Amino acid sequence: MNRRTINAVVILGVLSLVSILIVQLVWVRKTMEMQAKNIAIQEKEDSLNIKEFSEQAHIAFINVLNIISQKTDDYSDKYGAVKQLRTNHFTIDISEELQPFYLETLLKKALYNQNIHQDFVYGIYDCFTDTLVFSNLIKFTKDSLYLSVNETIPGLTSAKLRLKKDGHYFTVFFPNVKAKPIEPTVFISPWIYISIIVLLVLVFFAYSLAIIFRQKRLSEVKNDFINNMTHELKTPISTISLSSEMLMRMNDDDPEKVRKYAGIIYKENKRLENQVERVLNVAKLDKDQVVLNKEQFDVHELLAEVKENFEFNQSQQGGKIALFTEASTFSIQADPVHLTNVVYNLLDNAVKYCIEKPDIQIRTRNEKNGLTIEITDNGIGIKRENLKMIFDKFYRVPTGNIHNVKGFGLGLYYVKLIVEAHHGKIDVKSSVGKGTTFVLWFPLG
Asked: How far apart are CA 163 and CA 130, in angstroms?
């Protein structure tokens, strides 16, 4: 996937995200407007219903008072006798005592005439005993209009009162009529919905971009690996082909040249075999497949051998190596073959990626109940954006104008795999143009 394709995907993704956001904003606005409209309508309806019920109840109770006092012409002097304590609770002052059955009959008729078809409970106050005695629940039914049932309302039982000591009154309570105070509607804000949707879209978009860039990087790594492998294999094949051709042209009277070219063919063939074997073996390595033959291993002895080998090979090129064995405990349980390969891999990289004469320092120390091996070079260094990928299989750090660095990108992958198989850790610090430091830690014992 080329850069133009990736840019197109990013632009389309951003446009899609903006479109979704605009649509969500429009719907949120419409939802909030509709909700505000519904609340206003409900408030108006509740207000009208409460007002209508209150007026009808007042008229019904005044009619009851008129019958009790045997007057039907004057409402004004009775209106003040009816007091509304709550939406569903009224008290009516009277001048004489009442029989419960008689009051119940009057209330049923008066409420029905005012189209109040609600269950109710009434209570008669006795000023002599300071007691308010409530009736059973009077239920409204279509068949019998009102029916007295043996049922009481919680909290409405006969009780001593201290609120009213003079005069007589009765009270009427409608249990099914409830005040409906205007409260803000409880709902999950649409902004929460839109935030969740946008967040999910962003996560999906970011995940998709990460996959795209990862696939692009893997594609580049694969192509780089194929190019390097082709170059690594092509060289010995060309050498073998050329040497074979020379042998075919030669006469048998020059055995020295025959041996020379035969040796070249043998050497390049082994090199080719080793390269193929290396690719096949390392590519198959996995954390669950690494088999270690551990034994008690002297790390300082290995590093001394590494130092001697380096000085022998790099003496003519002017390379330097310094070994600082500061660790007091330097024997660990490890696989000698794999651990030796790890150290030589890091040393080979230090030489390959160095423009000037190699100057390498190896230092050991004990820390965190383990042995630390620190290898520092003066190479070209590694950029920060490449550091997190150097241990990936087949990945090779871009070398700019340096084209003579060969390899398959398997060395550091192998190094990390072996270190972690020993339950160790590996870290890397680098500065471009100054060098790189690899820090290996292995547990003791």
From this structure: 9
